[in-house]
Structure of AMP-binding protein:
Amino acid sequence: VCLERSVDMVVALLGVLKAGAAYVPVDPAYPKERLGWMLEDTGASVLLTHERWKSVLPPSAARVVCLDSAAGEVAKQPVTKPSVQVGPESLAYVIFTSGSTGRPKGAMNAHGGVVNRLKWMQEEYGLGGTDVVLQKTPFSFDVSVWEFFWPLLAGAKLVVARPGGHQEPAYLVKLMKAEGVTTVHFVPSMLRAFVEEPGLEGLGSLRRVVCSGEALSAELVKKAY
């Protein structure tokens, strides 16, 4: 899946999983060489993207489907549930890291692990129908997985930040106020920038802040609280 953060991205990921396949997040901003290696290493058979990104894609054996220009054809497809069998050991997604050699290294994750994580989060932090979760982590990072699927499984609302929005504290404050966001993730360094942004006083909806990726100091916790 080679898309910017958007509703189409969410639909694409759900569609891949519902079809019984696994998705590989491919950031269109990556260098063409890296994109080529990822497509070759995974042996991807289908590449979901938009017309605007076709020019940045390297040659590959994958069949390219542009969700924007093919929308009419896609709409003609049956709405019946695909007759596929998916189990706990079935591959759900492959996320690439930089790798110890500098070459991208794919980490494979199965449905069982994803479901286990989401079940634990729901038991511990219980989302409900009135909750609003902000999806802002780039989908090439693991945190994005629960941002996408936890609210959808729990019947909560999913709000998708604009491309690049995860790096803009002022935009995030405005968006979270407008959408009544209750649940969000930050790495601690970004949380610090966020809590120092003017206008947080009116963000009364926020109830859960999940932190990971860096050490979280007690001082920052107190400041955020």
